[in-house]
Amino acid sequence: MTVTVSAAEARTRLLRGEVTGGLHFRGKLDLSGEKTLTSLPEGLCGDVLDISDTGVHTLPETLQVGELVARNLPITRLPAGVRVQFRLTLDGCTRLTELPTGLTVGSLSLQDALSLEALPEGLDVCFLNLSRCDALRGWPQQGRVRYGHLSVRDCLSLRELPAWLTQIAQLDVSGCRGITALPAGLRVNGWLDVAGSGLTALPAGQPIPLRWRGVRVDARVAFQPGTLTGAEVLAEPNTEVRRVMMERMGYERFLTEVGAEVLDRDRDAGGERTLVRVPLPDDEPFVAVSVACPSTARQYVLRVPPTIRTAHAASAWLAGFDDPSQYQPAIEA
């Protein structure tokens, strides 16, 4: 027999170990952070269940909820009998390796599921977040992401998107260097984030709005940074777009073209250091330190806070020192 209680009453009973049969709860049952909670009873069902950061290491086969939030759990699999109607969040479940065939849910988030190598056959979702799933290498033969949002941000092992992905609202492939093309039949209706991906152009005939780590940019900024000029960067009124343009152009070329003001110059164990400054309209000034790598002699330009006034203080800040006087390296590696 299943007993129906409030979420508060269900929480009390579960933490006291008083649940021996089916239990239906109303509202949000928040058990997050309860490290002594290591399991859930069979027959548990209800609206919203949050068991994040608990000691739960397996989920009951008969669990049925509208929303399940289960971040940072030591679980290795999602049982086939678990039913989640609207939203399933398994972010940070670093040991998770298995999801059930035919998994169907409105929104599925698997961010930082570092051990997950494959998605289940027949996966059916509207929103799918796979950000930083480092081990993920491929896709099921059959699946659906229905017109919603797909994020594969920083999935370093991925080399392609599935052929069955045909229409989606938003797509984030930022950081996926191995993805060099989109599926031939894919239509992106909203936006495409391409920052740090292997994409070098948009598919022919598809004027998809582009983003670079969330900032709206045009195709020239995304795919032809060598054509940008320092004057264009300074003339850009949007501060976020301007910062992306500087990054794409390269700080060293930008500073050379705009004639940066030298604030300080000195030498340390690694060689010469130069602190430079460029005023920016309607934004804090761009301040950076130029240093050489002692091993390769390659020059690096690294941005630092605009309040820094010496090259030594800039190097100290980059090394993690709040007090520059404590930064006294004998040798630079």
TrEMBL record:
This is DUF6745 domain-containing protein. Residues 210-331 form the DUF6745 domain. Pfam families: DUF6745 (PF20530). The lineage of its organism: Bacteria, Thermotogati, Deinococcota, Deinococci, Deinococcales.
